[in-house]
Amino acid sequence: GAPYSTCFFSQQNKSEYDGRTRNYGVYGSTPRVFVQGVEVNNNLDSIDIAPYIGAMSNFEVKVEHKKIATTDASVTTTIYKRAADTTTSAKLYIAVGEDSIAYSASNGIPIHYGVMRKAMTDSSGMDIALPSVLGDSLVVSKTYTINANWNQTLLTGYGFLVNSTTKGIVNANKHKLVGA
């Protein structure tokens, strides 16, 4: 069963939470920490991230998150090819999260950051063909209905460009909801 079967958050979008943990092979074992698709110990320190500080990506990710109606919003993710790269495909994971929610969970955590509210793509991301020409872009837009229980001023759209083989993040970005 789920590790937090009584947790308010994990019961709201159970299949989406379960899908993400299964994608990384850690179902039923949260929280866990991953760097570039590889599990590291839960006491993340600078040695785990040092190789990636200042690293550049050949692909830029831009995210726009805006209200399009009273109860609807869109997350538009644009992938730009910024440097020579022979990679032709990847996965794009798009989601909406709510930040800084005060809730006394059974795991003892009182404040929850980046609570996933809605997966806009498959749990492992959607297959995409990357732009092949330098400067070209690919645009993916997804819409969703804003749940009345969510605090719109805390909603953020996320876009993760993921290596299909290693599950490492190629690049990512986020954008707070505009028009809330």
Describe the 3D structure.
The radius of gyration is 17 Å and the shape is globular. Strands 5, 8, 9, 11 and 12 form a five-stranded antiparallel sheet that branches. Strands 3-4-10 form a three-stranded antiparallel sheet, with no helix packed on it. Strands 1-2 form a two-stranded antiparallel sheet. Strand 6 (101-102) and strand 7 (111-112) form a beta hairpin. 19% of the residues are buried. The chain has helices spanning 8-12, 14-23, 46-49, and strands at 33-35, 38-40, 59-67, 72-81, 89-98, 101-102, 111-112, 115-119, 126-129, 137-145, 155-162, 169-176. 11% of the residues lie in helices and 41% in strands. The model has no long low-confidence stretch (mean pLDDT 87). By secondary structure, the protein is mainly β.
List the helices and strands and how they pair.
Layout: H1 8-12, H2 14-23, E1 33-35, E2 38-40, H3 46-49, E3 59-67, E4 72-81, E5 89-98, E6 101-102, E7 111-112, E8 115-119, E9 126-129, E10 137-145, E11 155-162, E12 169-176
Antiparallel strand pairs: 1-2, 3-4, 4-10, 5-8, 5-9, 5-11, 6-7, 11-12
Structural class: mainly beta
The residue-averaged pLDDT reads: 87
Shape: globular
Biggest pleated-sheet summary: 5 strands, antiparallel
Task: Give a quick rundown of the structure.
The protein has 180 residues and is mostly beta strands.
What brief labels describe this structure?
3 helices, 180 residues, 3-stranded antiparallel beta sheet, mainly beta, 5-stranded antiparallel beta sheet
